[in-house]
Amino acid sequence: MLLVLGMAAMLWGIGMVMGVSRQARLTLMGGLLALVLLLQFALPDGHPVREATGQSPALWLILTGAVALILGYSRFVRALRSRTTTEPAEQAPKPSGSFSDTELERYARHIVLRELGGPGQKRLKQAKVLVIGAGGLGAPALQYLAAVGVGTIGVIDDDVVENANLQRQVIHRDADIGVPKVFSAQMAMEAQNPNVTVRPYNRRLTADIAAELFADYDLILDGTDNFETRYLANETAVKLGKPLISGALAQWEGQLSVFHPADTGPCYQCIFPEAPPPGLAPSCSEAGVIGPLPGVVGSMMAVEAVKLITGAGAVLKGEMLIYDALYGESRKITLSKRADCPVCGTGAA
Q1: In a 3-state reduction of DSSP, which class is residue 89?
Q2: Staple 157 to which of 134, 138, 263, 331, CB 3.0 to 4.6 Å?
């Protein structure tokens, strides 16, 4: 038996060194165990191979049963965790509009603002905002949404914190490397403001869950870095009549707009009818990005969310704000709706 266990340990170690997946190594261990059981029952007593592998079928059966029990329990636990962390949360009642003394002191600088006051802060407390992506743009947006007192904040992302993220994704810490971003962000937000409810969705936004997920929120912030998710978020938001705050980054430049065709203005696909060819719009990992830039644009996204919720000021509907950090310049351009847009145009389904 010791010989077989030694062989198993050696094969497991070699697999780790060669980068073989854990599932493949487990399959290999299962095959080795099955082979040993076959030899134990097929070979006669006293056979050298049977003696070398332990010559104890009963003991091997007990060991096999124990391994199967452990693996089954582990899979059961993972399934439970997956259900609690990846499925859209059930709709919960909106937080109460009443404030504790601590909250009144915390939000005092808001309450004295003429454009917000107590009613505006109450609307923030009752609001539910979903942020797609807990990376460069999501990090500052999430921090400020929690800080200003948005009552319920959802965050969906399937990525984990990496060392290369920390130059700009300031909601995550060095100690969070390897942790799913939604849970790292949740810890930071709840530590910053324990009065808010954070709903983490540790998965990628896909078409099969988008509508159900969006329906439970008042507005959506899109901080993703790929066109597939941007188009999906836009299409779903338009169908449900939800405002979509969209931001993007490239090297030293950021852009920001609010798309809400149900109210006024175009949708995202009116402005970007199709994704650019590969290489024309490289990601931050390919083209680079200055660290504080996501903080600037992500914070602007949070400001637009506050204005949408409270009715303060004028939001960027039908406009795009472009910020050039390298030269300290910003400009706004007017955006127009396209009648032939397949998402919000006259011929849209």
Answers
A1: coil
A2: 134
Instruction: Note whether 307 and 313 are within 8 A (CB).
Output: yes
The stretches of the chain forming alpha helices (DSSP H) are 2-17, 22-42, 48-52, 57-86, 101-106, 108-111, 117-126, 138-148, 181-192, 207-214, 227-240, 268-271, 284-287, 293-310
Secondary structure of residue 77 in the 3-state scheme: helix
Number of H helices, E strands in the chain: 14, 8
CA distance 225 to 228: 9
Helix, strand or coil, per DSSP, at residue 338: coil
11 torsion bin: left (phi>0), alpha (psi -120 to 50), beta (else): alpha
- Structural tokens at position 181: 């971003």
Distance CA(33)–CA(15), nearest Å, equals: 17
- In whole angstroms, what separates CA 58 from the centre of its chain? 48
Q: Which two tokens stand for residue 332?
A: 């706004």
Region of 62 please: left (phi>0), alpha (psi -120 to 50) or beta: alpha
Q: What are the pLDDT digits (tens) for 159-213? A: 999 999 999 999 999 999 999 999 999 999 999 999 999 999 999 999 999 999 9
* Distance separating alpha carbons of residues 211 and 236, to the nearest angstrom: 6
pTM above 0.70, yes or no: yes
Q: Do 334 and 319 meet the contact criterion of CB atoms below 8 Å apart?
A: yes
pLDDT tens, position by position, 59-95: 666 667 666 676 666 666 555 554 544 444 444 444 5
